Every structure is written in structure tokens, then in C-alpha cells.
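Box 3.1. Reading complex inputs
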Amino acid sequence: MASTLFRNIQTVPLLLYPSAFFRRKNGALYCTIKSSSSSVTQTQTATQEKQQDPQIKVSTQTQTKTADKLIKDYEAIIGIETHVQLSTLTKAFCGCPYNYGAKPNTSICPVCMGLPGALPVLNSKVIEFAVKLGLALNCKLSLNSKFDRKQYFYPDLPKGYQISQFDIPIATNGYVDLDLPMEFGGGHRRFGITRVHMEEDAGKLLHSGNGIGIAVDLNRAGVPLLEIVSEPDMRNGIEAAEYAAEIQRVVRYLGISNGNMQEGSLRCDVNVSIRPIGQSEFGTKVEIKNLNSFSSVNRAIDFEISRQVLLHSQGQGSSIVQETRLWEEGSQKTITMRKKEGLSDYRYFPEPDLPEVIVKKEYVDSIQNSLPELPEMKRRRYESMGLSMQDVLFLANDINVAEFFDATIAKGADVKLATNWIMGDIAAYMKNEKVSINDIKLKPQELAELIASIKGGTISGKIGKEILFELISKGGTVKGLIEEKNLVQIVDPAEIEKMVDKVLSENPKQLEQFRAGKTKIQGFFAGQVMKISKDSAGGIFMRTLFRTAETNYIPS
Amino acid sequence: MLSTLQQPPRSLSRIPLHLKPLRSFFTVASASASQDQSSPPSSQILTVRQALLSRQTTATQLAESYLSRLSLTEPHLHSFLHISDSLLRDAQLIDRKIERGEDVGLLAGVLVGVKDNICTADMPSTGGSRILENYKAPFDATAVRRVKEKDGILIGKTNLDEFGMGSTTEASSFQVTANPWDLSRVPGGSSGGSAAAVSARQCMVSLGSDTGGSVRQPASFCGVVGLKPTYGRVSRFGLMAYASSLDVIGCLGTSVADTGILLHVISGHDRFDATSSNREVPDFSSQFASINLVESKPLKGLKVGLIHETLEDGVDNGVKSAISGAATHLEELGCTVTEVSLPSFSLGLPAYYILASSESSSNLSRYDGARYGNQVFAEELNALYSDSRAKGFGPEVQMRILMGTYALSAGYYDAYYKRAQKVRTLIRKSFKDALDDNDILISPVAPSAAYKIGEKKNDPLAMYAGDIMTVSISLLLYA
């Protein structure tokens, strides 16, 4: 929006401002304060970018055996606040683009810097994405909502308030359906969604190398977020991690966010409390931050449940206090980050710089009609196609894989065979080469062609495999490769007979053994025939011919 | 507000001025204007335009004469915080355009003062606050950009109460502006610098900002025309926010015509201000007609309501007689004037101070010393914030931040902020009812004329009470 006016500000960041405003170093803004220990820990969420194995694993090391026994007597109550960074072209209230990893303070303007006199103007895509997510999460949409200011002081918050939504969020009262992975026992779950609201992201604090000050990078300031608050419906780490994974699938299916946890495009803050089974009151809830992967969500929660259960069972329930704890990946523990001293007063009030958000029913309907098939719908459809839950979960997990699969079967491929190829050789290739299904050269229609060629007997399964790797790495068409390499399966019985003749006559010893009842030697003959035919002799005919040979073949 | 002045204030005649070039210009200009009956002679903007296009004078000559007048008057008035370095260069550019026969904008050669809470890229913008001392904005406010696009020349940045919070301009962090009519009196505020500068002919027109009366009241105190547009008519982009739901950029000039022309230039939707109105901008100036040409009762049939609550106890007799004089004048022009009562009128003042303080406590959060403005060195973050803000903000601003923070705090929100919003709705309704029966409503601007400098400095409640007549109108939003 503001791109024309501020173009030169973006390209030559900060040069237009008098040098007195900023103490700059390496393109970042500095304020001259000593980085106290509290600010060090607080910045970790923003700066830690550890690579995590996206696969969920259960860590039993964090749970002591005593806790395991005790846990049976307790119930954990888990709720999650998820922040999803929207992949709009520009920020929520100005025309600056946002690119993760860009040089600090290179994508900023007076609006997202909170300069005097600058005003926010809402990017309409934010509403569109919020409505999409609200509908996808089966929420009730507020046709009349508004923005509010949430006020607090922090160096990464340039205006001294965050534009957010307080008492009238855009969407409320929804739910999300998911299926737990088979390795965790499977099962369908429905978790409630309390609310979805729109807000803006803050900047990032960076450490200066010399330890004297804290640097502020405002590239992220003003990037649109949707905050999704769940009902406290989860009972263990796996459920919570799967809830978060489902949110990731939903936003990726909708195309509203890349959902990348390592880059902070998807952030989960988890609330955990425990209570003895049978007790109706909730226990004291503890918030956990710094969860950079689904597996850390899982492990942090299970650790926290054990910690709380141990304390409670030892009569130290009162030492479970309302606090924010940090998940430490290194020690696999949660540690105290800050104790909550009463409720913070954010002094919310309606944002006077922005008009009310009015969404027309027709607009909502048009978005509803344009929604893509969502993960849950896909899973149910795949299930109805006769696929196992293992297959269903694999295919629906990644929207690109699901789309590839859908396109393959749309070309008439056999459902089960297509599944097997994708989950087998194709998945193995992607894992080895660390690429996504969109990076491989194989097109769905060629996979369909390949499957049809094998099924129809044009090529053997073995040749199919070879062609597949060629197609994945170099591209091309199945037909083209078959012709190019002269790989058409020899189906002419006379031709095969000639080859069989040749093999049998060249190996009289083996033939004798065969006749004597050593039927296993059939494999040897088959290998020899394949060798002569350069792998193009059709298996079916081979078997037929050998059956003949078994009984009445006499080498000429 | 209704009076237009043809002569500069008397008090300045005591200041030894060398007004020769200026006088000769005005003689020439008014002589030529009187020949052309189609333009109202009181419009400086149209007079300047005619003088430039007919080559009777040049923009450079005009700028030079105003600069020399400034150098004489400014030591007594202190209406400006900065004077433009590029004034003469800008004027020469206009002259060259005219020489080349190019089209020039409506404000060509017009010298415009800009209140210092309105951002300008070429001059500092301090908002009258120590915390933004020497701050230079990287952009022009939309209103300023529109003035420049019409070839208006910025002469300087005018003094104000810090961030617009005050009614006397005494709350400026930098200097106290004097009233040109009596240097011992306040010019009003918060646009005191803009009003005094126009009144003393230091500039031809000026931009001010009005949150609860900050254009209207100083215009009244300085005897110039002040125009507070409807909220949303003029973009707020580039205006340092005081109370976002009330702030409006307004115009000050020596004639209704000039403020109308200036308003026309700066009005209209702006994609950088989501609260700016999409309504079409009428050409206010095309409706102006020379007094010689209109019929004897040009306002016949117009129903005028005089707000009863603005004539009660506590209003100076001089003010009462001035407004009844104006009412009589309107009747002579054909209006019917009746008194109307607005029962919720007195609630406007407390509601205004709660809402404006609440919003200001939020709007001024950005001045934390961390990114721009004056920063106090501190060992830790909270000390950096509190020390920078304690040193950077003056007492009036600190008081309003505290009041606003209190009104928005948990447990008090319903009793103050929310209740004030309800009062705002009530006031809006009572005005709407009054406007169902009347075409326009009139009232004095303030209960008194300009008072002495220092007189109300230690009595903020008395100062706030002086805003009783203007704040209710500010609460109306879109009518």
C-alpha cells in the first residue's frame, strides 16, 4: 500500500533518518541498555532456529518410572495458543513485504516503525485469510468485529501497543478433527477452538556481538498473524502435537501460511495443568514457550505433566505456580522463565485509527464456496477409497503429496498401486535427496502412465522401477523412455521360446538337475533369459514357458 | 470565528516595523482586487494569485517581505519553532514557472505556516515536545503534500502546546507564544503559533490541528478565522496523534475565503488514513461571492440555532454581546435565529477529557526513547523508558497520560472510558436532534477572550473549563 511513497525508504533503510535516532550497527537498531539476564532468555524464542526432526517421537527418557505409574492417577488438561504468520504479500497495515531471513531493518517504513504521524491501513488479505481459517476451523464468524490496542512496553513493539482483537474476535467457537498416527494407537479426535483473532507481529530482538546492547530488527513488526486459541481439550503430548500438526496442515491446505515452525511462521504456546482423576476443579496452569517443533511440543508437555504429577504426589502441589516456563532442547526440560505477578493489565481499548471490520454474508459465502478440500475431508475420502489409515495419514499429511496423489488417480491410476509407488519408491527418493514432491521431475500423469504400462504388461515391474528413477530425476515421459531405451517387454512367445531354447541348450547340467526335481533352479534359467533379453522378456510368458519346459521340453 | 480582519493587530504597530514593501504590495493587491468584482477582496490567496499572474509582484518579493517582517515580529511573538531554509528557493521556483508560462497551483506563492505536530520532510517536526527535539520526519503529512502540490510555500513550523495538549501554547517545551494583539496575553492553543502567525501577518494562512478546540479557540483569541473540518474530511496521515478519534487538521486564515480555499486543497480521501472520508470534496471556494453582488438578504430562510448552554453563567459579558451581535447580523442577512437547548452539552467536557486522555496515553507510548527522539542512558530497560519519558514529556502531557492510563485500567474502564463513549453517543444524538430543526448551530468559541500569560497555568481545571464550547462538537464524528 505504502510502497510508492516509501520506496526509497525501503531500499536505503534508515539513511533518511537523522543519525541521532538510532545507534546502528550491522544494520540493526540499538538501544543503549545492558542486556539483563531476563531479556536474554526472552529473546531466545526469537533467535533460536534449531533444526528439528519433523517426525514425532516419544521420549521416555524424560519420564521417570515413578512418574509413569503415578500419571495413571492424574489427568492433564492442555490448551494451546497458536500464532500463524500469514503469507500475505505485504504486512498487515503497510506496504512492506516480509521475507524471513532478510537483512535486519531492510523491510520497514514509517508505519511499521511506528514513527510519529504514521497510521495503519488494513491489508484486506488479512480479513480474507482470517475468514478462510475461521471457516476451515468450523467457527462462527463475527460479521462485525473490530481491532483493539493491546498496550505494553517492549523494544520490539514500536508503537507501544499491538494492534489485536480483544472482545470481538473475527471467529469463535469452532473445532478441528484429526486422526492420531497409528504408531500412537490411532483414533479420531475432535478438539474445540475457542477463538481466532487477527493481530500484528512484533519485531525481533537480536543480541549485539559485544554484549553492550540489544539490537532491534523491525522487519517482522507488523506482519499479520492469526492467533488460534484451543479449548483445553488435549490430554497428553501426542494429542497436543497432533493438534498443532493439524493446524499446520489446515493453514497449508488453505495457502494462508507456510506454517514453518523453524522460521516461526507457526508458534505454539502451551498451557498445562494436572488434576487427580475425579477432581472437577482445574489445577494451576503453567505456560510453556520456545517450542520449535511438534516433537518438542510433545516432549515438553510430557515432561511438564511428569514434573507436575511428581510435585503433586509428593504433597508439593503448592509449588506448581502460575508461570511461564521455557522448553530447553538441550536438557529436555522445562525451566522457569518468569513468574506471573497477578494479571497483566493490557488496557485494551478499540483501535481508533481503524474502522470497524464489517464482513458481508455474501463475502463469507463466496469464500466458503471457494475453500479447498481440507485435510479432514481428504482423509475421509481416502478412507472411503479403501486405503488403510496408515496410507491415508501419509497421503493427506502433506498437501503437495495429496495433490500429487489426487492428480495421479485422476489420470485413471489404480488407487492402491499409486499409493504404493508414492509411499514406497517416491517417498524414499524424497527422503534421501531431502526434496519435496514438488521438486521431483515426475509428473502425476507419467506415474499414472507407468502404473498402466506395468498393469497392461507393456513393461515389467523391474523396468518400471528403473524408469521411475529416471522420471523422478530427469523427467520425460514413460512412452518416450520405453522407446528410447527399447524397453518394450517382449511378448512374442516365439521370440521368447528362442531365448529359452538358447539358455537350456547352453546349460544342460542345470537342465538335468531341474528335471531331477530341483525346481529352484528355475530362477537360474529366468535370470539367464532376462540377461539375454536385456530385462525385456515378459515375466508372464517366462513362467508359462518354463512350465512347458518342466514337462516335455527336449533340447534340440 | 465569524469576524474577518483586514488589518494586522494594533499591538504590532508599537513594534518598529519597516513595512514598506508589504504595504505597497497590499495597496497594489487590493486596488487590483477591487477592480475585479468576481473575487472576494478579502482573500489573500486569490489576491496573491492575481498579483503574481499579472506580474505585479513576484513570489520572491513576497517571500522576502514576509521574511523581513518575520525578523521584526518574531522576537516579540515566538510563534515559530523553525523557519524554512528553502523559502526563497521555493519562491524562485514558482517565479520561474510563471516566467515560463507554466500552470501554477492555486496556492502559488502563498506562504503557509504549519503547526509543528504536522510532519514535514524538509524541516524538523517536534510536536512542541522535548522528547522529539530535532526530530525530522522522513515524509510530508498528506495535508502538507497537498499544499505543496498546489505550489504553496511552507514558511515554517509553528509553536504549540506539547502534542496539542493545552489551550494557551504555554505548554510548549520550547517557548511561550504571545498574542499579537497584546503581548502579555496568551494566543490560545494548542495551535497558538499558527493563529498568532496569521494574525501578525507572519504568514498568509496556516495549518493547525484541532482535537477539542485547538484551531477554533486560538483563532478566536487572535482574531482570525479558524476552521475545524468534520472528522475524516482531511487526512490525519502525518499528524502526530493526540486523540485519534478526535484529531483533525484545520485551517487558519484572515478570511473565510482563505480557510475555505485551503480546506479544499487539503481535503479528500487518503489511502494512508483509513479514517479519512470517501465523500466527494465540494469546491468550497466556488460558492464565494463578492458582498457587492449579493442581494440584501442572501441567507433568507436559513434557520440558525444559538446554543443556549453556551450563554449561561461563567461566560463573559463581552462574549455574550459579541455573539448576540453576530446573531443580529445573521438576522439582518435573512436568517431566523432561535435559541436551542442541548441538554447533554455540559457532559461534553468530562467525556472529552476522559476519551482524549485515554487515547493520548496510548498514542504517546511510542515516544519511549528506544528508537528515536531523546534517550536517557539507563542501566536497564524500564529505567530507560521511565527516565526518557520523565525528561522528555512536560507536566501537562504527563498528567494526561496518567489520567488516560487510569481511565483505561482494569476495574476503571467501565466507569470512565466506556461511560464517556456512551456520553459521546448521547451528545451526538442531541446535536442531531437540534440539527433536525435548524440548518446551522452557532455558539461562542470560548467563555472569555484571551487571558494573561500565566493566569491559568497552575489551574488546569480552569483552563479545561475554557474548552466547554468546543469539545462537544469534536465528539460528534461524522455528522
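In summary: Residues 1-6, 16-40 of chain B have pLDDT under 50 and may be disordered.
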